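Final report, section 2: Outcomes. Of the targets proposed, Dymeclin is the one most frequently requested by collaborating groups, and we therefore present its record in full.
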Amino acid sequence: MGANSSSISELPENEYLKKLSGAEPISENDPFWNQLLSFSFTTPTNSADLKLLEEATVSVCKSLVEKNPRTGNLGALIKVFLSRTKELKISTECQNHLFIWQAHNALFIICCLLKVFISRMSEEELQLQFTYEERAPGSYGSECEDLIEELLCCLIQLIVEIPLLDITYSISLEAVTTLIVFLSCQLFHKEIQRESIIHKYLMRGRCLPYTSRLVKTLLYNFIRQERSPPPGTHIFQQQPDGGGLLYGIASGVATGLWTVFTLGGVGSKPTQQLEQCSPLANQSLLLLLVLANLTDAPDTPNPYRQAITSFKNTQDNTALSSATPHAFQINFNSLYTALCEQQKSDQATLLLYMLLHQNGNVRTYVLARTDIENLVLPILEILYRVEERNSHHVYMALIILLILTEDDGFNRSIHEVILKNITWYAERVLTEISLGSLLILVVIRTIQYNMTRTRDKYLHTNCLAALANMSAQFRSLHQYAAQRIISLFSLLSKKHNKVLEQATQSLRGSLGSNDSPLPDYAQDLNVIEEVIRMMLEIINSCLTNSLHHNPNLVYALLYKRDLFEQFRTHPSFQDIMQNIDLVISFFSSRLEQAGAELSVERVLEIIKQGAVALPKDRLRKFPELKFKYVEEEQPEEFFIPYVWSLVYNSAVALYWNPHDIQLFTMDSG
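The predicted structure is given below as tokens.
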């Protein structure tokens, strides 16, 4: 770049950057700043472009890291930015493109420099980079102003107070990104940060009063999904005199303007994916998740988490309680729509999990919706495409289902919602099926995938817990859903027999040899028997509570009745098998009385008639199956690395060298 350059490769030799990172202090009133900030380019929108930019400017950044403690040029740049943001709101109202443009450029440079500083030094060392203040020799002034707090507070004010327009989109995005960069110290520590300097600034002092407004603004940015304006519209329009995208600036600055450049190359077209996404919505959601997962201070709970867990619907007329600090109101209908539409991303699923788990107002609203399928279907598709998703995304989707199935009203209503032509379900053409039956199919498919691939007990447990919560409310199960329930039991039965056979053979082999240790087949057998027990309890729960509503399940049970023989006398299953054995015997007898060669329709008719005739008091009552999701102790040990892996992998407007990352390994995202 520079007065006559147009290539990123020439940035290290740019005279303005060399002066900024040089050995001479630059006063914040120096005309140099107008020259430095008078450049225009298409803001990088992906990590690949930012990697190019960072590699080109690494020598400049290293020089500034070394010399800034003596020159204070970073502080001077920040003061220039702060002074320009004081009039940013007026500039927006007056459509003062020039003023907004230079403020954006100042913040862009600050953000790029901060990212390098934070990756190379501790927070204490970073603080020193902000505390330079020029004094006369031998003088001892009062403590210098706290530039970190002032900059953080300014960024928050910019996000919450500047209206989102085409001309302010870039600076709003840059403010959100810079806050993420400020918090990125966590990436360079293996341990969870609990005493961070930046956290303290954000959770108390001048930033604290803006908590609810910041959370609300970030949520609305996510809800609105505003796309980035076309390149050029947010800076300058073509001038009538053919002067191009750049103006001349007063005081003769025009002769020192940096040439327009585009990281992707002049005239390059953005990809279709970038055209369709909203960088501001994405970054706002990531910042929201980072803030919500900051650890509590010893004397102060995380105010951003308090805001997220307590906000209410704009339709709720009850007064905000003083007992819930940082509460606010937001349009739940708009939020619900955005959550339904954005579930393809990990971060949107994580937000949905947080709101359902921690905000009772949101959970009550969601469960009362009459179009719950709009939310549940995207969650089911995440589970269905388990091979394409990372394990954390699958877990979050599954836990969301578990939370929803804790509600009996939800479990009833999903069987009343009839869906047509589920195109993404490939195993079988489903022209018409209830949401409840589809949910059962997808959860069972997830269990079967887990049995053959990942073998994760936690995944098994949560899948079975969701099925168990629903089992008493099973209604009019689709024949394919009923078949899959019994097929899963068949698979478990075969697995049980296989492990049992291996254990027997191993024991026989060990009698002739004392050298090799025995595999722990007892533990494997114990796990598989726990799962079988759970499946029998699910089937039993449906039979005892809603047998007359589920002729297809009884049909599938009778068709595969031989599967259950081996478990009738098994000590682990005898009690739960009583009801299942009774149902099989009762309906088998009625079918035998009806004669041979019965059609499917006739069998179902006999089952329906028998369901009415079967005395309910003959079925033994068991405790209701109810499982409640409980977050693990110290959830931050899971959620903080997860959130930062999402930031790292986002590929929008941020890039970090993978060799510098300490918080997680590169395959954990």
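The CA atoms of residues 476 and 550 lie 5 Å apart.
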